[in-house]
Amino acid sequence: MEFLYTYETLKLEFPLVEPERASFIILGVPFDGTTSFKAGARFGPTLIRQATLNLESYILDYDVDIAELSIADVGDIAVVAGDSRRTADRVRETIEGIKRANPGALPILLGGEHSQTLGAVEALRPASYVVFDAHLDLRDSYEDNPYNHACVARRISELGVKEAMFGIRSGTREEVEFAEKNGIRWVHARDYSFEAFVDIVSSLPEPVYLSVDIDVFDLSVVPSTGTPEAGGLAFWDVVEAIEWLAKKKRIAGFDIMEVAGERLGDPTALAAAKLLFYFIGAVAKFSR
Ligand SMILES: N=C(N)NCCCCNCCCN
Ligand SMILES: [Mn+2]
Ligand SMILES: [Mn+2]
Predict the structure, then answer these.
(1) Could you identify which of 68, 122, 254, 257 might form a hypothetical disulfide with 114, taking C-beta atoms 3.0 to 4.6 angstroms apart as the criterion?
(2) Ligand 1 site residues, Cβ closer than 6 angstroms
(3) What interface predicted TM-score (ipTM) does this complex get?
């Protein structure tokens, strides 16, 4: 299956299937044109794929070997340099094409900066958006661009999608007021608990799009990301939430965003690769 805007990249190590037959379809978007502090997320998709080469495909605590699952990788989006909206259009068109060819597939987007999640949500039209992030991402515009990575949750809210955010520890007063006014639930990182997550997400309509901005983890775990913040969540906090979602909600799509880095084996990419394997394994093991 060919798409207008994708090109072949480094592949995952284990056998992959054709996208038409896959349960999970991976797509990278190497775009970091609006990152505001540290660039490098353009290398995220390749760094994450490289980091998977370090990992066992067998997930011990699930007794699931993801090498035995039906996974496709359609490569990376050919980005429009400096244009986050047009690149997100390409993400949208590619995921729409994936769903036309294989309606049952679960698309997984590897970023690249968070602005590109908008393209995936526009394509999949979930009822709810659940995001783990250090940042509210509810700015109406940032650095004169309404499609800046700091605005993605605002644009998604404007689509009428219900939103819930966890691990938050950065934002502006205007963003907090917007969230309050628009019924957007968010939990500060210092108040996060699995119980708080379940309490909020239980009532969200399905299907759910799950987005993980890698900066939700503490900067000691993920130093290579565009806007790192101290005081983040632990890796297993997010895995536990993913397992609950896989058991209780239909998941429309998933992404891991804002992974930057310069070198093979970057800790941020390693954390992202492990999370990718746990997501795929949890859906395979627990989903209804
Ligand atoms: N969603 C995000 N990653 N937001 C980051 C926005 C920019 C925060 N720096 C503001 C610095 C002011 N001195
Ligand atoms: Mn963030
Ligand atoms: Mn974000």
Answers:
(1) 257
(2) 36, 135, 137, 142, 149-150, 227
(3) 0.93
